[in-house]
Amino acid sequence: MTIEGGCRCGAVRYTLALDDPPRTYACHCTDCQTWSGSAFSQQVVVTEDALHASGPITIYALTSSSGRISRQRMCEICHTRIFNTNSARPGIAVVRAGTLDRSNELIVTAHIWTRSKQPWLELAEGVPAWPEAAPPEEMARALRIGC
Ligand SMILES: [Zn+2]
Ligand SMILES: [Zn+2]
pTM to 2 decimals? Predict the structure, then answer.
């Protein structure tokens, strides 16, 4: 199936080639709160080759204290962040779930960094949650990636 999305102004559009509607995770870390201007970020993890974007994209590269480089892709015109890659995870792209056209159909199957979750936000019972980052294999299971 092909899943489509784009930025707020419409100049950047992208497609995801996936077998099933993607599962998503919510990150409640304070960096994601600042970056999204919201309580958490909702993300779709895909392989980079499943993602095809067109339009004017600009890149913001941020090097973390551990030396990992995160490359954030955003619309050059309206600055909507669309997706990022990270030098620590080659071949993987993390897409901002709210930019999907049919984001209303998405479900969240994992919560990470709940230690800094906003106190008013109640998480659904039975959805895996971790106080900080999740172990990669448990995260992959929750998102049904590579299995
Ligand atoms: Zn735009
Ligand atoms: Zn985060």
Answer: 0.93
Selection from 119, 97, 76 nearest residue 16 by Cα: 97
| Ligand minimally distant from the alpha carbon of residue 53 | 1
Q: pLDDT confidence of 13, banded at 50, 70, 90?
A: very high
Ligand 1 centroid to residue 99 C-alpha, Å: 11
Dist. CA 100 → ligand 1 center (Å): 13
Residue type, 113: W
Give the angle 125-132-101 at the CA atoms, nearest 5°.
65
Q: What percent of the chain has pLDDT over 70?
A: 99
**Could you say which ligand is closest to the alpha carbon of residue 112?**
2
